[in-house]
Amino acid sequence: MTRGNTNDRDDGVWLSRRRLLGATGALAGAGYLASAGGRAQTTSTIELGGEIAGWQGRAPEAIADETNPTLRLEAGQEYRIAWTNLDGFGHNIALLDDDGGVLERTSVMSEEGESQRLTFTAREAMAEYVCEPHEGSMRGSISFGNGTATETTTETDGEPVVPEGPTVALDRIAGGFEVPTAFAAPPGDGRRFVVDLPGQIYVHTDDGLREEPFLDVGDRLAELTAERGLLGIAFHPDFGTNRRFFLRYSAPLADDAPDEFSHTEVLAEFTMDEDGEQADPDSERVLLAIDEPTPYHNGGAITFGPDGYLYASYGDGGSPRDMGPGHAEDWYDANGGGNGQDVTENLLGSVLRLDVDSRDGEKAYGIPENNPLVGEEGLDEHYAWGFRNPWRMGFSDGELYVADVGQSRYEEVDRVVKGGNYGWNVREGTHCFGTENVSDVPEECPDSTPPDVRGGEPLRDPVVEYPHQRDGEFVGISVVGGYLYENDAIPELQGKYVFGDYSRKGNPRGSLFAAIPTEDGQWDFSELQVEGAEGGAVEGYLIAIGRDETGELYALTSAGDLGGAVHRITAAGGEAASGTTAGARNATAATESATTATGSAPTGSPTAGTASTTASTTGPGTTDAPTDGRTSAATGTSRTATGGGTGTGATASSPRTDASGGDANGSGGNATGDTTATDGPGFGVLAALAGVAGLAARRLGRD
């Protein structure tokens, strides 16, 4: 057992619950609130739920359903805070004094549904309670009075932070995925390729979704967590003739990586079979392998630019505030860290640009001769830097747009140029950022690097920025990048940049936005209203936005009523792709999803008792894989790849839009589960649902 606080009290242990129960929202009763080890019954218990949107009050009744409630304590009284992780992000709880000093804290835990408790004696020095990785949004006050907890209220001015925009429809074209992370459509091919987090790539055509995966690399992945898995795909501009394509995935930690690191991010090339039906799993050639300090902030987007080069995004390494092991020191002494501003020690916190059609010395790829640091101090692969977690990116009208997920307060979209510095961790969006206490925003910070750091390059502002919340109104928590819409099928979107956010406040309700590009300054944007959906929101977490070869856009979602699915964004009030009327789209999709949930889940998806998949130990980063081509996040060294790292992927059953079999106990498919007394009644049903939704409720974009 791991202790949940820094003292030696027996009741500081973590209480682990089945992750499937957490993934389906079936948080068990208050059994974990009983006093431990025979402790006297005078301890007062406060129950909270923890999610990025804020601490959610549960008990006593005075704080129930309040966000970040004030905890009113009595000095000298013993209290127990019992809290449950609601969203699968990394959270802890810490009690702070007026100066931000930590008086009590627990360790970080990231399993959805897992519970933790902290027992302490209240003293008047206590001023606030926070989640340290998310201090900006998960923060509440402590006051002293009559020994009860009371809520705080926030007045709003009634004006929305983001104005309401035009209405669009979402036509569900495929479903049954776990977490669809990427979408690609090679020019002239006529097919649409959907990437699923557990390691499968599926083909969708006008005839529907094909049964067998185009490729399965699930046996090469590290154990799936909130942000590890198969993350990106890009097809070579000449794919029609050379059959080459590229993947980004999270592999087990390489043997020569630092022991304390999490895993190794692999960029690899594959080739399609000559018959064009499936990829050759034995054709893998590893181009680049980067050892990651934590499971978080992996970026994962890859795309080819109009110049024919491959662009790849990498986050800052994942520790909060860009600090800690594996996070390099940089030029800005006022803040600890970080990889976002460093370009000499490693390739993290950057967008890289590689020439996959040549080789530079011992490297498995070439370096474009006009990359900004060629001949300068720094690693030649860098194209732009200063990013925290560039989750999705893409080219539109020759411009590269990158969505960079913020930490505490702001989300941003950047128009990226060669050699651009986008500010992290000196700034979050256009705002100063402090690593000592993220709630205490510095009044001033640099707007450029010093003259002796690349000549005083400017820190570039985003073209889109929005807060997580303002005056009690939640806007979003994790930006999702998109594309300019240049077609005329949806007149209201023509010429606008369509992007979104994973969730409004941690629940499975994402958002779609449309921004009006301008040459200078920040862009105005509005929130698109989804036809037939509650509150106009996307029904499910928004994971990614895709674009096909004709320029039409797609929303990739997970969890919620519609499960893991791909939806074509269309004009409101028209005919759906399936022939159903616009008003019936959501009802039809929900019915299909409900049928899917009770049937068999794809092979490799979570089964009863686990919400993550442990991958095979073969593949890149193990003793059977090549170790060359690796870049260490600790040293920044690189060696040439040999083109190994091969292996056959297990065949998975396809995602489904309908299903047969499966009874109330979860039998008739893969989603069967234990039905012991500790699981509670109906666990088989929860396991069946989790076959589709288990991984979906686990977060991809931020920690």
Task: Explain the overall architecture.
Residues 576-641, 649-662, 672-683 have a biased composition (Low complexity). Residues 437-458, 576-683 are annotated as: Disordered. Residues 72-143 form the Blue (type 1) copper domain. Strand 9 and strand 10 (139-144) form a beta hairpin. With 703 residues, this protein is mainly beta. The strands form nine sheets. Strands 11, 33, 34, 35, 36, 37, 38, 39 and 40 form a nine-stranded mixed beta sheet that branches. Residues 1-41, 147-156 and 576-703 have low confidence and may be disordered. The protein contains four helices and 41 strands. It has two domains: 10-144, Sandwich (Immunoglobulin-like), CATH 2.60.40.420; 176-597, TolB, C-terminal domain (Neuraminidase), CATH 2.120.10.30. The longest helix has 13 residues, at 585-597.
For the structure shown, list the relevant keywords.
703 residues, Neuraminidase, disordered C terminus, mainly beta, 4 helices, five-stranded mixed β-sheet, electron transfer activity, copper, metal-binding, globular, Blue copper domain protein, disordered N terminus, TAT_signal, 2 domains
